[in-house]
């Protein structure tokens, strides 16, 4: 992975950032990791913190090894906890009625 990223950098190839989209009330909302641009950012982050507390109480521990970027450990945990999919899910939970299906769409293929 490191060699590929270096080759991309040397050739001027830029990686498209991953984003997650959710449609609510006929409007598409787009999120990227650590996104703070949404008008309901405070409510989204509060919901995400509530969800994070819930999963931690159930025994979840973020796997920092899953973050492939060369950043500090606390930044890795932030990237895991505020990933675009999680932001989209948190928004969907606060913006829809309980039990409504949430459909998250990614711009990247795996």
Characterise the protein shown here:
The chain is α+β, with helices and mostly antiparallel strands and 110 residues long. Helices cover 43% and strands 12% of the residues. Strands 2-1-3 form a three-stranded antiparallel sheet, covered by helices on one side. Strand 1 and strand 2 form a beta hairpin. Helix 2 packs across helix 4. The longest helix is centred in the middle third of the chain and has 17 residues. The two termini are 14 Å apart. The mean pLDDT is 84.
Radius of gyration, CA atoms, in whole angstroms? 16 Å
Q: How large is the count of helical segments?
A: 4
Q: First CA to last CA: what distance?
A: 14 Å
Largest sheet: 3 strands, antiparallel
What's the rounded overall pLDDT mean? 84
Structural class: alpha+beta
SSE arrangement, N to C: HEEHHHE
- In terms of DSSP E residues, the strand content is 5-15%
Helix content: 40-55%
Q: Work out the number of β strands.
A: 3
Sequence of strands across the biggest β-sheet: 2-1-3
Low-confidence sequence ranges: none
Topology (SSEs and partners):
Blueprint: H1 2-10, E1 20-24, E2 27-31, H2 41-57, H3 73-81, H4 84-95, E3 104-106
Antiparallel strand pairs: 1-2, 1-3
Helix pairs in contact: 2-4
Write a compact overview of the structure shown.
The protein is an alpha+beta fold and 110 residues long. It has 4 helices and 3 strands, in the order H-E-E-H-H-H-E. It has helices at 2-10, 41-57, 73-81, 84-95, and strands spanning 20-24, 27-31, 104-106.
